[in-house]
Amino acid sequence: MADTSRPDHLPNLRADRQPPHPSWLPRQRRGTTPQMIGRYPDFDVLESQDSWDEATRKVVLARLEPPGPLRFFTAAEEPTLRAFCDIVLAQDEDPRVPVAEFIDDKLADGRLDGYQYADMPDDGDTWRLVLQGLDEAAEQRYGRASFADAEVPSQLALVEQFSRGGLYGGAWSQLNESRAWSVCMRMALTAFYSHPWAWNEIGFGGPAYPRGYMRLGGPSGRASVREPFESRGAVDKDPVRLVQDEGS
User: Fold this and answer.
1) Per the structure, how many domains does the chain have?
2) Which domain, by its residues, includes 92?
3) Which among 51, 108, 143, 237 has the fewest CB atoms less than 10 Å away?
4) Where is the region Disordered (predicted)?
């Protein structure tokens, strides 16, 4: 496990300004997490499934079924979609939450968020233009045929530029870039954190209905405050406070 008493685990204080690979976290011993690492190595949310009602259990367990082929994105778009999702969510190896498939299903079925920015195309067109723009930028800046063909440092650089509104021309001229980033990240993060493997990674206890919660005293590392189904984290320090203290 990394030494978190020193500030060099923080991205802005490391020589390369990149966060350490999450492999410093313990290996998962129970259940599944993305890449089989996490802060709660002995927690498996699926052990609580008997406390969920039948409808809830059916919805959650369906997310664990093997994903089918993409229906919205084309075969040419798929590699860039997968590479983008892996980079922004730091899913470097299997097991991975099938974020690309979740996004594809949502767009193919038209299950959108119920609103659209006035100066933006619909979400499906936004995604297609973003993938096209990433491919164009990879070719212009790094001489690669597509974003998926670029090396990881190049992909990281392009994604950072996208997040800051720093990509221009081509497909990007048809988008409000900051809104496009918001659309894509909202959908990617929603997909990732809807999956039980992500719940295991963050120690989330899953649906509260009809079980409910007993301990309402706020966050604490004390066993008396944790729910009976919650697991103690492998790292005791509050990560938010840790970053605030060492970044000041």
Assistant:
1) 1
2) 77-194
3) 143
4) 1-36, 221-248
